[in-house]
Amino acid sequence: xxxxxxxxxxxxxxxxxxxxxxxxxxxxxxxxxxxxxxxxxxxxxxxxxxxxxxxxxxxxxxxxxxxxxxxxxxxxxxxxxxxxxxxxxxxxxxxxxxxxxxxxxxxxxxxxxxxxxxxxxxxxxxxxxxxxxxxxxxxxxxxxxxxxxxxxxxxxxxxxxxxxxxxxxxxxxxxxxxxxxxxxxxxxxxxxxxxxxxxxxxxxxxxxxxxxxxxxxxxxxxxxxxxxxxxxxxxxxxxxxxxxxxxxxxxxxxxxxxxxxxxxxxxxxxxxxxxxxxxxxxxxxxxxxxxxxxxxxxxxxxxxxxxxxxxxxxxxxxxxxxxxxxxxxxxxxxxxxxxxxxxxxxxxxxxxxxxxxxxxxxxxxxxxxxxxxxxxxxxxxxxxxxxxxxxxxxxxxxxxxxxxxxxxxxxxxxxxxxxxxxxxxxxxxxxxxxxxxxxxxxxxxxxxxxxxxxxxxxxxxxxxxxxxxxxxxxxxxxxxxxxxxxxxxxxxxxxxxxxxxxxxxxxxxxxxxxxxxxxxxxxxxxxxxxxxxxxxxxxxxxxxxxxxxxxxxxxxxxxxxxxxxxxxxxxxxxxxxxxxxxxxxxxxxxxxxxxxxxxxxxxxxxxxxxxxxxxxxxxxxxxxxxxxxxxxxxxxxxxxxxxxxxxxxxxxxxxxxxxxxxxxxxxxxxxxxxxxxxxxxxxxxxxxxxxxxxxxxxxxxxxxxxxxxxxxxxxxxxxxxxxxxxxxxxxxxxxxxxxxxxxxxxxxxxxxxxxxxxxxxxxxxxxxxxxxxxxxxxxxxxxxxxxxxxxxxxxxxxxxxxxxxx
Amino acid sequence: xxxxxxxxxxxxxxxxxxxxxxxxxxxxxxxxxxxxxxxxxxxxxxxxxxxxxxxxxxxxxxxxxxxxxxxxxxxxxxxxxxxxxxxxxxxxxxxxxxxxxxxxxxxxxxxxxxxxxxxxxxxxxxxxxxxxxxxxxxxxxxxxxxxxxxxxxxxxxxxxxxxxxxxxxxxxxxxxxxxxxxxxxxxxxxxxxxxxxxxxxxxxxxxxxxxxxxxxxxxxxxxxxxxxxxxxxxxxxxxxxxxxxxxxxxxxxxxxxxxxxxxxxxxxxxxxxxxxxxxxxxxxxxxxxxxxxxxxxxxxxxxxxxxxxxxxxxxxxxxxxxxxxxxxxxxxxxxxxxxxxxxxxxxxxxxxxxxxxxxxxxxxx
Lengths: 806, 365
Known about the structure:
The structure holds 2 protein chains of 2 kinds.
Chain A: H1 2-7, H2 13-30, H3 51-64, H4 69-73, H5 94-104, H6 107-217, H7 220-236, H8 241-267, H9 271-284, H10 289-315, H11 324-349, H12 355-383, H13 389-409, H14 415-454, H15 466-489, H16 502-534, H17 545-573, H18 585-620, H19 635-654, H20 669-684, H21 693-706, H22 720-740, H23 746-763, H24 770-786, H25 796-805
Helix pairs in contact in A: 2-3, 6-7, 6-8, 7-8, 8-9, 9-10, 9-11, 10-11, 10-12, 11-12, 11-13, 12-14, 13-14, 14-15, 14-16, 15-17, 16-17, 16-18, 17-18, 18-19, 18-22, 19-22, 19-23, 20-23, 20-24, 20-25, 22-24, 23-24, 23-25
Chain B: E1 19-27, E2 32-40, E3 44-50, E4 57-66, E5 69-78, H1 81-85, H2 91-96, E6 99-100, E7 102-107, E8 115-120, E9 128-133, E10 136-142, E11 149-156, E12 165-170, E13 178-183, E14 186-191, E15 196-201, E16 209-214, E17 221-226, E18 231-235, E19 244-246, E20 253-258, E21 265-270, E22 275-279, H3 300-309, E23 316-321, E24 328-333, E25 340-345, E26 350-354, H4 357-364
């Protein structure tokens, strides 16, 4: 049956169906005779079978072949295949089944199942019959085919036998032919060997002449190759006289060859590659490597020194040096290129020399390299003063890039490190140079400002205002800083070969640029500004006060904005990424603020001093005893008010107004006139007698108890009112002290009264707390009264009239 | 200058037609202050200095107002005997009755106008006086019993402008041959033998120099103060730079005084109404504190341990005295008790203070 199934061309599904039925039947038959037929079979017969049934037959096949039904068909829950009561199961046990039926079912059901089973058996029988009929033809044709095949095979067997006999005959013949030809083959082989030997001998005999010819033609390489080939043989057979003769000849020629090669080598004009070739040949000729190596280096040295000399000539003081880029280019291509060639050739030729040879080369390179570096440094030193950074950086880049090749070749000579060092040094010097440049620029700005401040009053028109000057200075410094940053930034540009060195990645950015250049500049700026405060010429002649004011504002601006801006800019441009501690912005800001404060305080002192001097001169030079009755305010006081107004304007240009103490309701202009009348008069005039001085003292003491102590030179705040307050305080205190040193006549006292009232009228609006002016002027008049032997004060109304008139 | 006890002070600038001199006795033990008033009828006193030899003699500069002109003169006076003896049986009475000074002699100033300052030779027999008049420096010899003053020699400042001496001191060193003066912003040293200038510190202060004093223990050291609110210490051998500068006051400094025995203590008075006591250890004669004598063998170990614990002293401000309500014009140390000092302000308030006890022991031990 198996061959039949295998040979059937297309085992389609309907064709397989009968098998399943047969299988099932066989299983049923194997289980022995059963009284009933299967209950699940549908009565319609095979023609009208449902897909369910088909699947069931399929399942049975699977069961038969040992496949689990569930996994193939996916039937959710089939009956247990091991159930002995399952009619279609493989383990069906008729006895158990019958027992079960008999036990479980009533009679009627038994009868039913019996009829049912009989009907099923019948249906199965008819099914089988139909199948057999249907497939009968196929069985017969299968039987025919098998019979025909049996015949064919028998014929084939005969032919195979014949083939075997023929092959045996052929083998036999072949063996006989081989045996016959054996002898001749051996002779041919021997003859071929002799031929080769003879050719070799011929080569040997011709060797001297060939060598001579090669030497004559200058084909040294060829000659050395020949010599190399023959050398061993000649060495081996030198005990034979003929060979000895050849060898001698060869040696003579070889010696001549070596001679010529050396000659060529020594002449040395033919450049490094040819020299290298010479050396290679000489080495092949077995010349001592040590000596050759020395000589090779000596030649190389000569050439390289030539290069160095020409470089030095370029450097020479008399001719204008070519630009630095050209110089490094020249050096790079000439010297460094040469060095590279030498090193490469050396390493190729004398690789066998081992560490000693390498050491020798390294020493050689070190020595020449250091001379080269010295030259380069001299050249670069000439460049230090120059302003063009990009050229320098490009030159350095080439220099550094060029040296990377020999650096890689000769790690031991430390050329690359030395080159990096030089670049770093130059970079550092550049930073220093830029710092100097910035400082100079700052000083230049200051000089400009001084000139601008000194110049403009000529044509009567106002020169550039302070605010404008300040803006000019600030922008000019900022642009200088930016220019410097940009110039220095070239050192860290990506395309520059040394920018990825650790120095340029870390220290250069943080310590060099940020700390050294920017922070250094800001610090030096603060210092320069502060030095104006400490200058010995404290009399104010040295520095124009306006400059102090301007610088103070500049520093303050730096504190508020510019410093952080510059540092941010720097940090952005130079990604500072190392762990060196850097000066925080706040420290710098604090320094700048301190500078601004000192400058402003100094400004106040200087301006205060100017006015003080005026007041002091006016008090000291006047004869207060014999003065006339006051008719008007002294010119000095008007001058003081004018100057104060001018200062107010000047400060107002740069500083904000500031906070005034809230004015009390009675602090209007009117009250000031009251001040000089009732209160003052009540205070000193009536009660004063020479015999009772303590009363006035007591009065003034009691009054002072309730007024706050005035700090004359107190630090100022950054606003106009505070500055003006400071100046006025200083001036009035001076007036007070000077008045106390003088003796006044009656009219002298009255003049002081007038002057003070005038000052009172005009100065109160400048200060933060008008009470202050009030107090100080009060004190002045009181002191003058004390210093007066005949204190008769002027009528307040008259004082007012005089003041308003003047 | 009244060595028996208490302190003496220069009279304040009292605005009186007739000056008074108040002799203040301060009894340290009982904390009692006695006041004696001496009338100075010639005029208001601007400067006063006591003779180092005779405690009853003093010299004053005073203003004389005549014909609507003010002229500053100088004279030497003798105090009444009973005050000089220093015995005060009845202090209450003495303060009520004003006594008069006895005029010994005038320092003739007809040739030269206003006398700014009178200085006695510090170590001598009270026979030599220097007075500063406008731009002249005058050396007077007092005749027997100070009855007459003879002009011995003089020198004058040359130069443009109206130069005026403001202050002067006689150096206690170099056998009393040196005098230092101040005019405007300049300090000058003079040799009294030749009356010639020895040294000159131009622009010693930014503004007017108000006062100066010599270090009593270090011969080349000099302190000065002025209107720039600073106190500067000078080494007269190198006058280009001050040795030290103090900037503690906020207004003109009128007075600077070294302590007579412990020269690290410097007293300054200013018109910001403050008195400041500073400890200038680093430039004093005892920069490492008081040196311990070796003969205290028994206490040696104790001293050693003390010395180890002692740190080198720093220059600092010891104290700021703010008792005054108005400008302080005069400060001075007691000549009897080195830990006592007094200050006087415009409003006539006299304040007597002691050096803080802790510092005193620190210096002594």
